[in-house]
Design a protein that fits this description.
Distance between the termini: 29 Å
Structural class: alpha+beta
Strand content: 15-25%
């Protein structure tokens, strides 16, 4: 079953417009998730809204948004009043400008979305907008209302559709100088720099998200296996690793030696082994997964080299 769109409306470039659907490009449903339960009964707990002053429970029908204008003084705002705020980006992604992809600061990248035409009538107009951008290494900047907020969205061709990435506003990004200005400028000795560069070169590879392993998730799944089987589970926290850097040059040399030693067993093998997925093992009486027992397929990389350069924020 196809996922439900997060937004439906029109994509507009000057006088060219087409109906589109916007879908979230990422998911967290595969993560292990926990519910709050009653320790005594094992029953699931439900949260209840309580008036902060009277401490009395409040019905859902009496819940309303409020903007605090003074201490404890709120202006009430109804949902239909917010929905009635008619701005163009409520229903239309109007492309305002095109900018070089390389100029977008990575700190401003927020959430990713897939954008596709939602009927056959608009497919030609959609293809015209998509192909006009393809190969130019430019992204379109438009505006869209998501979760009752207008966001700037960057659009770029992605396979047969568009990839949209919402951007943070300038006031949402903290000034790096507040954190880095007190770091003194350090002149790194040439021999140390060469050793460090050698370590970097030995670890160089290609970007392959399928090779990423969530070790914390694996540990949680392993712990759940033991608990379900009735086996004891350790509550002892792992000790934090102690810093053993006494001599930086010596540490760099030992790092290189360790890298060479680790590389020997892999000699003669082609590529890297894919990480084992614990969820695919029949160890549970019922599926322990973050929402689905079956892992989703890895997202396919874009067809062209230019589109594969997108970095994660």
């Amino acid at each position: 079953m196809a996922p439900r769109p997060s937004w439906k409306g029109y994509l507009k470039l000057s006088l060219v417009a087409c109906p589109v659907s916007v879908f979230t490009a990422t998911t967290s449903s595969e993560r292990v998730s926990f519910r709050q339960i009653n320790r005594k009964t094992g029953n699931r707990l439900r949260q209840q809204l309580v008036d902060d002053e009277t401490r009395e429970p409040v019905d859902a029908a009496d819940k309303v948004r409020g903007y605090e204008v003074d201490k404890g003084v709120y202006v009430q705002v109804e949902d239909d009043e917010i929905e009635a705020l008619e701005i163009e980006s409520n229903h239309t992604i109007d492309i305002d400008s095109f900018v070089p992809r390389a100029q977008i600061d990575e700190r401003y990248l927020d959430s990713s979305y897939y954008i596709a035409p939602n009927d056959q009538v608009g497919r030609e107009a959609f293809a015209v907008i998509r192909e006009a951008m393809r190969g130019k290494d430019m992204v379109a900047l438009g505006r869209i209302v998501l979760a009752k907020r207008e966001r700037v969205i960057a659009l770029q061709p992605w396979e047969n559709g568009l990839l949209g990435t919402t951007l943070r506003y300038a006031y949402e990004v903290r000034n790096a100088s507040e954190y880095f200005d007190e770091i003194p400028t350090t002149k790194v000795p040439k021999d140390m720099l060469q050793l460090a560069e050698h370590i970097l070169d030995s670890k160089a590879g290609d970007f392959d998200p399928a090779s990423f392993v969530d070790h914390y998730e694996e540990a949680v799944v392993e712990m759940l296996k033991h608990k379900q089987a009735g086996a004891p589970v350790s509550k002892q926290k792992a000790a934090a690793p102690a810093s053993n850097v006494v001599n930086l040059m010596d540490a760099l040399k030992r790092s290189i030696a360790a890298e060479k030693g680790a590389a020997k067993p892999a000699a003669g093998k082609k590529g890297k082994a894919k990480p084992e997925d614990l969820r695919k093992q029949p160890q549970f009486k019922f599926a322990i997964a973050g929402g689905k027992a079956k892992q989703p397929k890895t997202a396919a990389a874009p067809a062209t080299k230019a589109k594969s350069k997108r970095k994660s924020a």
